[in-house]
Every structure is written in C-alpha cells, then in structure tokens.
Write a structure and sequence with these properties.
Order of helices and strands: EEHEHEHEHH
Low-confidence stretches: 1-15, 17-29
Number of strands: 5
Strand content: 5-15%
Length: about 160
C-alpha cells in the first residue's frame, strides 16, 4: 500500500502512452484523499493521457480532504476532456447512500455514472447496467433494481 503523499510518477503504458490514471494523494491527517490534487497532477503532467476517446473510471469514496476549488477545477477539466467519467464508490452500495459529502456533491453533476462498488459482484452489476443501457441510459446506483441487488447479494429475485 502506498503511504507517500506524493503522486506516483508517470511511466509509459502500452505503445509508449502514459496510463490514464493516477492514485489520489493521501492526506497527512490520517483519512480521506486529495482527489483534486491527483486530477491537477494529471492535468499538469499528462493532459494528453485523457481525450475524447477516454472513459475515466475513478474508484473512491469521495471523502476528499483537499481544496474544494482544486477538486471542482479538476472534475470540470476531466469531464470536458474525457468521453465519460464513471465513479465507483464503496459507500454507494448502502441503500441509504446519498452523494452528500463535500467531494461527492462537487463531482456528482459531472459524472456519467456513479455505481456502488464493494466487491466483484458490484462490478459485474455495473457492467451489466452499462451493457444493457449504455452510458447515455439511466445507469448508476440509483437505477439498480431491488431484484438486481437481491440476486447480487446471493438471494432469489423478488
């Protein structure tokens, strides 16, 4: 597990391109991440890693502890530049989840999809929604049917 608060260095990916991802900085206070700082690092050091052919997938609980303006600027840049932004949030598996934290409320208007993600079954459910409806359809944690959740959790459909 990374313990440094510095973002990882970019290394060439396939065909010499940098990977279209960055690990968020961890706060020195012991909790939360600095997602805005990570997005700013991508924007400054590898803006060509994200273009209109890129679907960006962020895996985070959205409990951002960085500067709110940096997060707002970063997600706006990312949404304008990428084809789509999909967010996988482990807290969104809860039936009572609302994207009300400062970080989630900042990024949510710019997301093409927001899914709960705690295990492989959640990822399969997200992929199933995307396959059936596409990113232009009604997708995300709020569109998962009760039957889908029941089957995912190992029960019989209701």
């Amino acid at each position: 597990m990374r313990t440094s608060s510095r973002p990882p260095r970019w290394s060439p990916g396939p065909r010499g391109r940098p990977p279209p991802h960055s690990e968020p900085r961890r706060s020195s206070g012991g909790g939360g991440t600095q997602i805005g700082a990570a997005l700013d690092t991508i924007r400054r050091t590898a803006p060509h890693a994200v273009d209109r052919r890129t679907v960006v997938v962020v895996v985070s609980d959205g409990l951002d502890v960085g500067e709110p303006e940096l997060l707002a600027d970063g997600i706006t840049w990312l949404a304008d530049r990428a084809d789509s932004v999909v967010w996988l949030n482990p807290l969104a598996v809860s039936p009572s989840f609302e994207p009300a934290s400062r970080g989630m409320s900042t990024v949510e208007p710019y997301l093409d999809a927001l899914f709960g993600f705690a295990d492989a079954a959640d990822l399969a459910a997200a992929a199933n929604q995307l396959e059936r409806r596409g990113l232009d359809g009604p997708v995300g944690y709020e569109f998962e049917s009760r039957a889908d959740r029941t089957v995912r959790d190992g029960g019989a459909p209701e």
